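Give me the 3D structure for Glycosyltransferase.
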Amino acid sequence: MKKYGILIPALNPDQKLIKLVHELLNNVINFDALVLVDDGSAVTNQAVFKELEEIGDQRIHVLHHQHNEGKGAALKNGFRYIRNYFPEIEGIATMDSDGQHTVGALSSCMEKFEENPTDLIIGVRKFTNEIPARSQFGNVLTSKLVKLLTHQNISDTQTGLRIIPHQYVDQLIEFPGDRFEFEFDMLLQARKYDVKVIEQPIPTIYLDGNKSSHFRVVRDSLAIYARFFKFAGSGIISFIVDIALFEGIILLMGNHVLDSIILATVISRALSAVVNYTLNHRVVFNGGGRQTFIKYGALFIVQMILSGYLTDLVTNWLPHNGNSIAPMLAKMMVDFTLFIISYQIQKDFIFKKDTEVNYAKNQES
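Predicted structure for Glycosyltransferase (365 residues):
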């Protein structure tokens, strides 16, 4: 049997949290620590934490934030506490405080973790028409985005019931993002650290239309999608630079449009690549050294050759009257396709962080 810790972040909880804690303590669930993180709850809700502290079970540990820092920050602080004081724990289970997760659901996830101790186990719910609209909306969008970015089919990206292997926890502590986007990033980055995401069906429970959820649909959704938006933004800026230079060079070279496509592609691509690398290196993926630059350079050369060749090929297919419209349209079509491919290569290969080496070392120790 693996050693487990349970982590529950809570903001303004009610009696449902007290009930859940008692159920955990009185059940056959085996765990060494139950860490509750008060994420800046109101004074009127402090009685809940006081009652929990007075239970007297040595496994209960209550941490307090002076103000609301976000669910991601609460999870990371809880992870740090468990890793510092209970380094022998092999899997950390996270649960929500609003009564959506049952002890039985946790138990089934633990059974799955026993079979897959190095993987991320997530308790997934079955979505029906009875599920609140905002919950369905958020899950559909994030599921599609995860599939686009990682090629993984994850049916419930917003589930808070998860069991995380301690090696991955050591990496999660360093992740950016302090609110709901942290849980999304946990799924998004798992593949990078060779962590497989495994689903375990659990009961679907929404109390009072999920009114107790602190998820802010617009603000938190924007934070969740920020990484892809940042990459798309850097791509759009680079694309504008590329197209503007390409069009300018075509116009300057007069009527020899088709003959000038390769040269225009090389010059515009080279300058836009400098912009793209700088933005992706410093803003989107936050890292990379000499090896990253070399890999990006290799991708740039291949992408430039493909762009020039395919643009020339598509231009010949399009009707044109000696003007620059046909090659510009061809270039936009080709480069959009290359943009999608380039994102996957940069995320999974070029800007893949060196922390993967540390993760492998942690597994050996």
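Residues 231 and 284 are 6 Å apart (CA to CA). Let me know if you want a second pass.
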